[in-house]
Each structure stands twice: as C-alpha cells, then as structure tokens.
Write a structure and sequence with these properties.
alpha+beta; BirA Bifunctional Protein, domain 2; RNA-binding; 4 domains; six-stranded antiparallel barrel; aa-tRNA-synth_II/BPL/LPL; 34 strands; nine-stranded mixed β-sheet; 39% helix; binds serine; Threonyl-tRNA Synthetase, Chain A, domain 2; Elongation Factor Tu (Ef-tu), domain 3; 874 residues
Length: 874
C-alpha cells in the first residue's frame, strides 16, 4: 500500500466506526505555551480530554503533522542514527472523549492491523503498563498469545504530552522486523533501543491530568488517545527495513543521490548523513510552511538547528553549495497532494531555506577554521574538553548550534564543557534580557469558565450590524457572575452576536448593548474559540443580568473603515505577488478603521518604482469596481484549488473563501466591502524591515487616504507659504534654499578660519617668553575638542618652537588643550601642564608630552589660560 492509501484507509476505518475525521492542526500549538510544536495527535484535543471544551463529536480520527525536535519528546539526536526516528512525522490516531475505553480501543486497533492492513500476527508483540492487568486481559481476549504480552514501566508505558497536561498508562503494538535488523544481539528483545522491534501504534488510556508541580488528578471521564507513525506502518506495509526506503522518503534520497553523487545503502556513515538530510529538509519544509522563520530563539531556533545540521551533514558527504532549498522540491512532490498548502507556499519555502543556507555557509567556513585552531591548541596542551566560552563563541558569533559543536567534538574525541557554555549563555541572556521562552499566551481563567459552560454564539455580523442576543454567561475578574452593574466592566457571552471578534489581524467591532434593565458599551470583542466570543463591556446605565435578552448594535463607521482596509490587504497581497514574485506571503497584518499594516515575506527593501507599481495595481483594482464574494468550502478543497491560507490563522474544516474578481482567492473570516469601488483609494504610507526576511507596509484607504493626502497637501502648502512660492514650484525653491544654505555654511566655515587665523596672530603677538620658550594662550569661543587641537596645530606651524594652550567653554563646562613643540619636549610636557592646571582650578585631565586635554569649570577657563606662564615657572 502506498502511503497515501494507508492514510485514507486508516481514516476510513475509523470514520466507518462513527469517528469524525478532523484535519491536522498547524504544527504550532494553539494557546499552549507549554509546547514548542505539536508533538502528537492529541494536542489539538487537549481541552476535550480535560473536559474544558465540548464539541459536536465524542470520537475523532486524524492524520496529524507532528514535530519532535525539542521539549519532552525530542527525537532530534536519534534522527539519522536509527531508521525510525524523525523530526517531522505524521501520526494517525483515533480518539474517544469519554466515550469508549480500553476494550474498544484494543479491539479497533487489532481489527485494523489484522483484517484491514493484514499484518503478520506472528510478528506482533504487545506491551502494557506493568500494573495494567485489565489491558493484558483484553489483549488475550482478542487473541494475542500470553507470551507476546510484555509488561514495562513508566518510561515505555506511561504517556504524557509534556511536563503537564493529560496523561495515562499506555499499550504499544510492536512489529518484529527480524533478526537481521537492529543490534543483532542474541539478547535483543522487546524494550531494546534498536530498530528490530518497531513500535507502530501506541494506545494511551487517558485517565489523569498532571499539573505543573507533578500532582496527578483523575480526568472526569476516561478517554482514548492513540497514535500510529505513518512512516513506520508504511515501512512494514511496503516490506522495507526502514522508514527512509518507503515512498515517503525514497524520492528525496534519489534526488539527494543526484546532488551529492553518493549512493544510499553502500556505506553506513554516508547513509546516516543522507537520512539526517532527508529528514531535516522535510521537517524544515513543514515548519516553514506553518509560519516559522529561522531565528535565535524558540521555534525559530529549532528550525535553524535542523537546517544547519542538515547542511553540515551535506558538507560531510561532499556538498559544498546550497542544496536544501532544491531538495525541498522533492518533499513537495511527495506531500503536495495531501498538503496542498505546502505546494502553494513552495516558492516562499525555497526563499527561506536558501536565505538561511547562504548565511550559514558564510559563517560555517569561518567558524570551522576558528574551531580547528582552538582544537589544535587544546590538544597540544593535552586538554580533553571544549571550553564553554568557545562553544558559546561558535554559537553566538558563528551561528553554530550547540549540537553541531558537540558532534564535531565527539569526532575529535573531546568532551564539552556544557556547564560553562550554559553559564556564558545565561550571562548573555541576562545582558540582553532576551529569554528563549516560547512566546504564547495561555487560556484566561474566565474564558475557560465560559468554555466549560459550553457557551457558543451564532455570529450574524456578516449580514447585519444589529441583532438580538441572550446573555448566556458573564465574567468579571475571571469569575462567573450573575450580574454586571453600572460602572462595572466584564466579559459577556451571547447566544447570537453581530460583533466581529478581533482575529486574523482585523480589529474588533465596537458598539452598544441595550437591555431590559440597563445599557452598556462594547469596548472589545475577543475570539476565545470559533463561535465563542467574549464581549468586553462597560455598563453605562442600570445593569446587565444573565438571561437578559438584549439588543446589540455595531458601530457602523468603524466597521465600514475596517472593511475597506481589510479588502485592501487582499488587493495589496495580490499586487505584491505580482510585482515581487510568488514567494511573497502575508505573515501578519493589522486592519484598523483608519489604516492597515501588512507584513510579508521578502528579502530586501522595495524600490520606489516597486512601491508605485504596487500602489497602482491596487488602485486599478479599486477603480475596476469588482465584486467581492464569499462562499463556504471544505478547507483542503479550497487550498488545493489555489486559495491562499495565512500562517496566523487557525482554520476549521469548513472555511470561508473570499474572492475578488478572478485574481484573488483567500481563506478569510474577516469582514469586507461588497465591491472594491467602496475602498475609494489606496496610498502606501511607509515600507520598512520588520525582521530578517519580513517587510512591513503601512497604507491607508477611503477616508484615511483622503486625510493622508490632505495632511501632505497641508505640509506642501505650509512650505510654499513659508518659502513664498507656488506649491508646484516648491521643490525647486526648497532645493534652491538648501543650495544657498550650503554655500553659506561653507562661507561661515571659511570666515571662522579667517577669524581664528587672525586671533592666532594676536595671540602670537602677545606671547610670553619663559626660559627662552614662547608661550601662546588663547580663548576660542564655540569650539569642540577637535577645533582646539586644530588651533594648537596652527600655532605650532606658525611658530615652530612654542608651548600652546587653548581653551573654550560651554556653559558650566570648560575645556583646555595644551601642545608642546618637539624641540621643547626635554623641558616641558603637555600632560604635566594640563595636570597642573586641573589641580589648581579643580578639574581633571591628562595626555602625552606633545598634546594633552583637560576639563575645568567654565568660569575658570580664562583665569587658567592667563596663569599658564606662571605654572611653567613652578
Ligand atoms: N499520544 C500518544 C503518542 O504520541 C498516542 O497518540 O504516542
């Protein structure tokens, strides 16, 4: 069976058994700061296990994208070394939320493997948690031989998502790949770390929730979470010895063979490198596809590590140039039908990978040299470890992920001073106060309470801006309350609402609540979940009570402005892709009443010409007065047909597709104008860099554009009035004024020099003689330290043999510079002169024998200059 067929068969088997087929969620967990990446199928259902949230189904089945390259389940170090571990993989799963439990979970699993996938029973082994007699008994009942049921402890047979969250004992199904696979030791048995007994399916009997402090509490209802690695079942069903030889990987390896001119399967070292590369390019492709960019922390750092690790392995097999971006094409060929967004985003993915490859290859070579030099030195001194500060330097300056340094150290038989590295890293973090925690918010208490109450609202705001709704739940200070009184603020959940909740970059609606016993203003609307909106209100009169039927009215002006800007972001997205290329992808946006902000992926600043073209295209589409239409579609179908999906959005299975004319199709839940003509006009206000590879455009539309234009007009008018010129000649006039100013400043400079030369003459004339040496002192108004030095140069040039001391003051601060010509250095020192002046007048300073500088109070400067000759005779 091809992998595509395995996926389908699995999902169909469970859907035939009353499971709802749910699409994979993004790799980025929703509102869960405890996780870097989604690492199992159950993550998107976490709240259902915890009974915080309810859905229309109690059984589900998925094929979930997972990444295990950080956090509790981290397979990164095993990738390449084994034939079965991956950073990115797909997990097939079936779930019961308080519905069936162990009996059915085991029966379903066994039936699918035996009757549908037709696996060889003789090769199957089962593990159960050491105390789980019940599971062992059920397995026996379905027909497993007793000697094939192995009991293992916490490490193997107790599963939890992370350090906190739902968890429970589990039972694993393993497949014996045969004596010739793995460690080949006679003692090899179930539980061995090698590749022989391949764990294909894990059935978790979710019964507990673990809290952050390790406390275990029983879940309200026992549930089921199972996970089967698609790559592993494909390996077995396709009769291969490792995942890399399945149809999920082999085309990547073939392409890699072409690039590297190595052949897979001939040499263990090369094979390991090829596996690492094939795995990592696939992982990177999917992680980038879900909106992560390489960076120094969190998810971005994981991405950077896997890309750089793959590159280093590339170097090991003789690839010296960038190649991963090209190899990602082979991944897209395999996965593009199942994950059409990977295909749509491919031009963008290529740019991100290539950018990182270019940067890394630049630093890699320098970093390797630095490493080699240090290692030579360490070894020559008999050292056994790479010091922490070197690991840090390679990491910080040369961008070497620590695991790469560790691998190189292992090759050189050196250990790593990891503690020293951690210390340097901590120090750096202290300095920059930039933690590496995952940024992300958790669920607010009050929102969890609303989810528990199973409140849901019908959103009617696409069609109407006024509606009646019943108050289902109210929250104040994170607590559910029955009533909100005049002057109080709180969050209200209605059964029906015309208010748009902030999401997808579009700001929330504002408006009014009119109830039987009071009124309130809606200040903010937060989307807790699909169809669960928290309306933040302030009661302005009387009170609002749970159960009240109220009239809800959206502020039309704000909604209209926001809708203009929202439709304009879609036009802008289209225009940028037309002008700059297909790699442009929206990476964020802010859609407000008066303006819009649009963040997108692109690797250099836009030229004026590109900005103008973009602006023109948007305005043309506005002038064409095109209809904007929406329709509901199945998510995968819409994406397959080319609709653009955004990173920042969490889409349900049914999506709203927004079309403008025949050129723009995006998945979008926002509010829009009905016709592009309503936007009026569009102007770009600014363009700049936001982060590496991400640019930001700010623009205005409609009334905002009129205001913007008026503001600029006023500026021009004002300048023209000030410069006494007609507005259309103001540019020439201002250029003329600037020219004049330049000529005048040059003239001033020249005059200043003349005055100084004149003063120097005066000062030279008044010079005193001390033991045959001429002592020239001079006060220079409005001078900087550099000017003073120049004046001493002029004096020395003029007299050849002399001592020159010049000073200036700026308010309370005075400054003196002393210089001594070379021929007098045996008797005098500029440094000493300054020191003496400083001592006498309360200041400080110093310098060399030829030139020195000091600061003394401003009001003492003139007296100090007068006393120089006396000081010299001391
Ligand atoms: N959550 C379990 C695992 O990841 C089963 O899906 O193994």
């Amino acid at each position: 069976m091809k992998s595509n067929e395995i996926r389908k068969t699995f999902l169909k088997f469970f859907s035939d058994n009353d499971h709802t087929v749910v699409s994979s969620s993004s790799l980025l967990p929703e509102k869960d700061p405890t996780l870097l990446f989604v690492n199992a199928g159950m993550v998107q259902f976490k709240n259902l296990f915890l009974d915080i949230e309810k859905r229309d189904y109690v059984r589900a089945t998925t094929c979930q994208k997972c990444v295990r390259a950080g956090g509790k389940h981290n397979d990164l170090d095993n990738v390449g070394k084994t034939l079965r571990h991956h950073t990115f993989f797909e997990m097939l799963g079936n779930f019961s939320f308080g519905d069936y439990f162990k009996d059915d979970a085991i029966a379903y699993a066994w039936k699918l493997l035996k009757d549908v996938f037709r696996l060889d029973e003789d090769r199957m082994w089962i593990t159960v948690y050491k105390d789980d007699d019940e599971a062992a008994l059920i397995w026996k009942k379905v027909g497993i031989r007793e000697d094939r049921i192995v009991r293992l402890g916490e490490k193997d047979n107790f599963w939890s998502m992370g350090d906190e969250g739902p968890c429970g004992p589990c039972s694993e199904i393993l497949y014996d790949l045969g004596e010739n696979v793995g460690c080949r030791q006679p003692a090899c048995a179930v539980g061995c770390d090698c590749d022989r007994f391949l764990e294909i399916w894990n059935l978790v009997f979710m019964e507990f929730e673990r809290s952050r402090d390790g406390q275990m509490t029983k879940l309200p209802r026992p549930s089921i979470d199972t996970g089967m690695g698609l790559e592993r079942i494909a390996c077995i069903m396709q009769g291969k010895l490792g995942n890399y030889e399945t149809d999920l990987f082999s085309p990547v390896l073939r392409r890699l063979e072409d690039i590297s001119r190595s052949v897979y399967g001939e040499n263990e070292k090369t094979d390991t490198a090829m596996r690492v590369i094939a795995d990592h390019v696939r992982g990177a492709t999917f992680v980038i596809n879900d909106g992560v960019l390489p960076s120094k922390e969190g998810r971005g750092y994981v991405l950077r590590r896997i890309l750089r690790r793959a590159l280093r392995y590339g170097k090991k097999i003789g690839i010296e140039k960038e190649f991963l971006y090209d190899l990602s094409g082979a991944v897209v060929d395999i996965m593009g039908d199942v994950y059409p967004d990977v295909r749509n985003n491919h031009p963008y993915i290529v740019r991100v990978i290539k950018g990182e490859e270019e940067r890394f290859l630049e630093t890699l070579n320098t970093g390797m040299r630095v490493y080699d030099e240090f290692v030579k030195e360490i070894k020559s001194k008999g050292g056994k470890a790479i010091p922490g500060d070197l690991i840090y330097k390679l990491y910080d300056t040369y961008g070497f992920p620590v695991d790469i340094t560790a691998e190189m150290a292992a090759e050189d038989s050196l250990s790593m001073d990891t503690a020293g590295f951690e210390k340097s890293l901590e120090e750096q973090k202290e300095r920059s106060r930039a933690g590496s925690r995952i940024k992300g918010e958790a669920w607010a208490e009050g929102h969890v309470a609303a989810l528990r109450d199973d409140v849901r609202n019908d959103f009617v705001g696409y069609k109407t801006l006024e509606a009646d709704g019943v108050i289902l739940t109210m929250v104040r200070d994170e607590q559910v309350v029955e009533q909100l009184d005049e002057g109080e603020e709180g969050e209200v959940f209605f059964d029906c609402t015309p208010f748009y909740a902030e999401s997808g970059g579009q700001v929330e609606d504002e408006g009014l609540v009119d109830g039987p016993s009071g009124k309130a203003v809606v200040i903010n609307v937060i989307k807790v979940k699909q169809d669960v909106f928290a309306h933040k209100v302030k009661v302005t009169m009387g009170s609002l009570k749970r159960g009240d039927r109220v009239h809800l009215v959206v502020d039309k002006e704000k909604r209209k402005g926001v809708s203009r800007n929202h439709t304009a972001t879609h036009l802008l997205h289209y225009a940028l892709r037309t002008v700059l290329g297909e790699h442009v992808k929206q990476s964020g946006s802010l859609v407000e009443k008066d303006r819009l902000r649009f963040d997108f992926t692109h690797f250099q600043g836009l030229a004026d010409e590109e900005l103008h073209k973009t602006e023109d295209i948007v305005n043309e589409k506005i002038m064409e007065s095109l209809n904007v239409t929406t329709e509901e579609r199945q998510r995968e179908d819409a994406i397959r047909e080319g609709a653009t999906a955004l990173f920042e959005e969490k889409y349900g299975d049914t999506v709203r597709v927004l079309r403008i004319g025949d050129f723009s199709t995006e998945l979008c839940g926002g509010t829009h104008v009905k016709n592009t003509g309503e936007i009026g006009s569009f102007s770009i206000v600014s363009e700049g860099s936001l982060a590496y590879g991400v640019r930001r455009i700010e623009a205005v539309t409609g009334k905002g554009a009129v205001r913007h234009k008026r503001k600029l007009d006023n500026i021009v008018k004002h300048i023209s009035r000030l410069s006494n010129t007609e507005p259309d000649r103001v540019l020439e006039r201002v250029e003329g004024i600037i020219g004049e100013l330049n000529t005048k400043s040059n003239e001033i400079e020249r005059l200043k020099e003349e005055i100084i030369a004149h003063r120097v003459e005066e000062a030279v004339k008044n010079a005193e003689e001390k033991n045959g040496a001429k002592v020239v002192t001079m006060y220079v108004p409005d001078a900087k330290a550099d000017d003073l030095r120049k004046v001493t140069d002029i004096i020395r040039n003029r007299l050849k043999s002399c001592i020159a001391v010049v000073g200036t003051r700026e308010e309370t601060k005075g400054m003196v510079v002393a210089a001594v010509s070379k021929d007098l250095l045996s008797t005098y020192s500029a440094g000493k002169i300054i020191k003496k002046l400083a001592e006498q007048y309360g200041g400080k300073g110093g310098g060399g024998p030829q030139i020195a500088q000091g600061g003394i109070p401003g009001d003492k400067i003139k007296a100090a200059l007068k006393s120089v000759a006396d000081i010299l005779s001391d």
